[in-house]
Amino acid sequence: MAVHPPSTQITAQLTVAHPGFTLDVNLQLPGHGVTALFGPSGCGKTTCLRAIAGLERAKPGHVVVNGEVWQDDAQQIWRTTHERGLGYVFQEASLFDHLSVRGNIDYGLQRTPATRRKVALEQAVELLGIAHLMDRKPQALSGGERQRVAMARALATSPRLLLMDEPLAALDAQRKAEVLPYLERLHRTLDIPMLYVSHAIDEVARLAGHMVLMREGRMLAQGPTDELIVRLDLPLAHGDAAATVITGTVLRHDAHDHITTVGFHGGQLLLVSPTPRAPGEPLRLRVQARDVSLALAAPHDTSILNVLPATVVALAEDSPGQLMVALDAGATRLLARVTQRSAQALGLTPGQPLFAQVKGIAIVN
Question: Which pTM value belongs to this model?
Answer without folding.
Answer: 0.89
